[in-house]
Write a structure and sequence with these properties.
Blueprint (H helix, E strand, L loop, with lengths): L1 H10 L7 E2 L8 E2 L9 E2 L15 E9 L2 E10 L23 E13 L2 E12 L7 E10 L2 E3 L2 H13 L6 E9 L5 H12 L5
Antiparallel strand pairs: 1-2, 3-4, 4-5, 5-10, 6-7, 7-8, 8-9, 8-10
Length: 201
């Protein structure tokens, strides 16, 4: 428990201020993200969406600034049980038998969120059905009642710790994505979006 507390303190708060929590017995509300100047809501950047089963609330939207386009997906969980939980093998970016999309590669990177170094999952998703090399650059992490992690194990530990402390089991998967560009523009676009739209929970 001491190790879990130390990790939780080190990771820092969530960078997006759009989650309203009104008590563990009520349904969570995901507000529209109030973005920094220059970022406006836009038409969807893609028809792709992650697979997260039975979230208490979810949000998928797109933002644009000049030629920069970023998609945002949040799957929020509360009062989790066997059929409704954040960390499960059924919650994935792409299923193995998806006829349109495939996961071409994945890794882990460090990202500064709210002034703190945070480890996130990164991936590329290929749109097979297009017949072209159309890919999305995807960044993903978990939010566990104010703490960030990319680890399934740590997410479960944070959730258990919060339940033991009487804080509930509120948690979410946060995913941002952008069309991949050969010059690496998608990486800088995602970095800029997270940086300027970050803030304390």
């Amino acid at each position: 428990m001491a190790l879990v507390l130390a990790i939780a303190i080190a990771l820092g708060p969530l960078s997006f201020t759009l989650i309203s929590k009104n008590g563990s017995s009520t349904a969570p509300i995901l507000h529209d993200l109030t973005t920094a100047k220059g970022w406006e809501q836009s038409a969807p950047v893609t028809i792709w969406k992650p697979i997260f089963e039975n979230p208490s609330a979810k949000l998928q939207t797109t933002f644009k600034q000049n030629e920069q386009i970023v998609g945002l997906y949040i799957a929020y969980y509360r009062n989790q049980d066997f059929e409704k939980k954040l960390v499960t093998s059924a919650n994935v970016l792409v299923t193995s038998n998806d006829p349109e999309w495939s996961l071409s590669n994945s890794s882990v990177s460090n990202l500064v969120i709210d002034g703190k170094n945070t480890s996130i999952r990164t991936a590329e998703i290929l749109h097979k059905a297009s017949g072209k090399d159309n890919r999305l650059t995807v960044w993903q992490w978990y939010w566990i009642n104010g703490h960030l992690t990319n680890s399934d194990i740590e997410a479960k530990l944070y959730t258990a710790m919060n339940l033991l402390l009487g804080r509930g089991d509120d948690s979410a998967a946060i995913i941002v994505y952008a069309p991949k560009d050969p010059s690496g523009l998608s990486q800088s676009t995602l970095s800029e979006f997270v940086k300027v739209n970050g803030g304390n929970d």
